Q: What sequence folds into this?
């Protein structure tokens, strides 16, 4: 007699034979959000659908519309892409194919190979990928020893992975195989290629863009236009990382072991200071009176504004910082989001009329009393902070809507110098596993919120989806309108953040919904060797998050 297990799904308990796969069980249900089931949440732990039910449990199936599901879809597509490009071009003609960074719905990949990137080549790669999807190939998973993994990657010429695994503490690792093509991926995989039907492959200069659906429309590829300014900012950061020979976690760990960390930190900080100096010179040359700074959460906008102000002073200008947050509407007038909660990130949360009236008056040479918003009482207050602009005075305005002309609708466009700032990490885990910029920003925020607001990890992680929605609506659509982009990511910072973030993440309990994300981040941080923060300069953007900044941040 076969063993029977009880499985609770959607509040209903069903009985299944022990050993039945989650994939088989999932076929009895229909996704409600337009995506496909790609993972199973079993007793609040993510599991691949190929896993089997072994004991009584509670299951919720995760779709490609959800964050964990979308990441899994992306991971599977990258492995399909890698198998296709190695098949078309030939392993003997490829030195390396690096998955570099995200360009909206596209992932930019940089091949180093003997053949040029052409439309003909990307069409062949796409056709080969479609062939694999039609075959519905299984993502086979096997566990091997870490030493065996190092030898395997060395034999494949995947030296970034070989370097990464030299610093792994675990004795075993999981390798995925797709019809004999073996690779390592950080995270879960789909059950098979059949569900990976939505993608496109296009050339971009000497690289290739793999286009994927977004979470909102998981079965649709939207028209794609390369965000050129973002692309060139990311490209420059990658070139600098390669010049420093620190483009992967393995290379960073090697530098730490070799005692090069102090030199690396000082070089990185000087490089950022040079970039801020160049931006200040551009502002001086433009003659513009309004500097508008915007960027997503935890980009380091406040420290950047302070450092830019100092650089502007060296050019004979007198900067005056203006925080758009001081123009919040009265708390009871704050608009509500779709969940009925105050939406502080909506443009309507700002009293744009008062903001424009004050800025227009300042530009006209009038004296204006500037407000300060009291976040405790929810009221705007006036405490005698009067300002009159002189001939060399300049306003440095910082807020999430800074690049949106609807914020500053009455101010002349020719008076605005727009800056977009974000933490666009150039560091990859290895050649096929990139580090999403959102992960870096979330870690920064976890550390800062725990230090300055006493917020536990679960609270910060729980708020993050709402923060991300606000960014998608209010910041990212306007980033290409910036006159200049500044990358605030520091190539060394994850080795510093590690020791600050781990206690916060370990504080998330197993029974909390946020535990899955906390566990994922802890596994991610395990790749890094930790470094003492004493060597980080006091003016560093990183100090805004870990504490000890020389600025009032």
A:
């Amino acid at each position: 007699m076969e063993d029977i297990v009880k499985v609770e799904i959607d509040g209903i308990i069903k009985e299944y034979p022990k050993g039945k796969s989650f994939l088989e069980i999932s076929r009895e249900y229909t996704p409600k959000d337009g995506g496909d089931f790609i993972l199973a949440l079993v007793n609040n732990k993510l599991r691949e659908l190929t896993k089997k039910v072994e004991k009584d449990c509670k299951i919720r199936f995760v779709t490609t519309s959800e964050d964990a599901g979308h990441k899994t879809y992306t991971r599977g597509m990258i492995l399909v892409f890698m198998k296709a490009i190695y098949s078309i071009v030939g392993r003997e003609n490829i030195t390396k194919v690096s998955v570099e960074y995200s360009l909206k719905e596209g992932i930019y990949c940089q091949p180093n190979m003997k053949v040029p990137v052409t439309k003909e080549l990307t069409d062949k790669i796409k056709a080969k990928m479609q062939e694999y999807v039609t075959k519905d190939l299984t993502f086979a998973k096997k566990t091997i020893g870490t030493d065996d993994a190092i030898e395997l990657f060395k034999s494949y010429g995947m030296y970034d992975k070989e370097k990464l695994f030299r610093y792994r503490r675990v004795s075993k690792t999981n390798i995925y195989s797709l019809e004999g093509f073996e690779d390592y991926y950080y995270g879960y995989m789909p059950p098979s290629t059949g569900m990976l039907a939505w993608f496109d492959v296009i050339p971009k200069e000497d690289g290739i863009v793999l286009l994927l659906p977004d979470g909102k429309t998981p079965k649709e590829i939207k028209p794609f236009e390369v965000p050129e300014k973002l692309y060139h900012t990311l490209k420059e950061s990658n070139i600098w990382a390669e010049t420093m020979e620190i483009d992967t976690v393995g290379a960073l760990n090697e530098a730490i072991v070799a005692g090069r960390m102090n030199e690396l930190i000082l070089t990185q900080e000087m490089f950022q200071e040079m970039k801020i100096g160049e931006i200040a010179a551009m502002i001086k040359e433009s003659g513009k009176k309004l500097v508008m700074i915007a960027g997503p959460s935890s980009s380091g906008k406040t420290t950047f504004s302070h450092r830019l102000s100092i650089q502007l002073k060296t050019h004979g200008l007198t900067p005056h910082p203006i925080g758009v947050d001081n123009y919040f509407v009265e708390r009871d007038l704050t608009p509500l989001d779709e969940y009925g909660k105050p939406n502080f990130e909506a443009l309507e949360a700002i009293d744009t009329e008062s903001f424009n009236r004050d800025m227009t008056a300042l530009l006209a040479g009038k004296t204006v009393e500037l407000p300060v918003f009291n976040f405790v009482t929810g009221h705007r207050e006036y405490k005698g902070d009067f300002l009159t602009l002189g001939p060399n005075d300049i306003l440095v305005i910082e807020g999430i809507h800074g690049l949106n002309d609807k914020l500053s609708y009455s101010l002349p466009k020719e008076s605005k110098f727009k800056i977009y700032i974000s933490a666009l990490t150039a560091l990859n885990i290895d050649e096929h596993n990139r580090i999403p910029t959102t992960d870096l920003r979330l870690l920064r925020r976890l550390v800062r919120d725990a230090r300055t607001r006493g917020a536990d990890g679960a609270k910060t992680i729980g708020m993050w989806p709402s923060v991300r929605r606000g960014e998608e609506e209010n910041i990212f659509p306007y980033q290409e309108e910036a006159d200049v982009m500044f990358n605030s990511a520091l190539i060394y910072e994850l080795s510093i953040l590690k020791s600050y973030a781990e206690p916060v993440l370990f504080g998330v309990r197993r029974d909390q919904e946020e535990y899955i994300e906390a566990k994922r981040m802890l596994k991610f941080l395990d790749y890094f060797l930790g470094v003492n923060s004493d060597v980080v300069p006091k003016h560093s953007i990183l100090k805004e998050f870990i504490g000890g900044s020389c600025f009032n941040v």
In short: The chain has three domains: 4-63, 69-226, 233-546. Residues 69-226 form a domain with the Threonyl-tRNA Synthetase; Chain A, domain 2 fold (CATH 3.30.980.10).
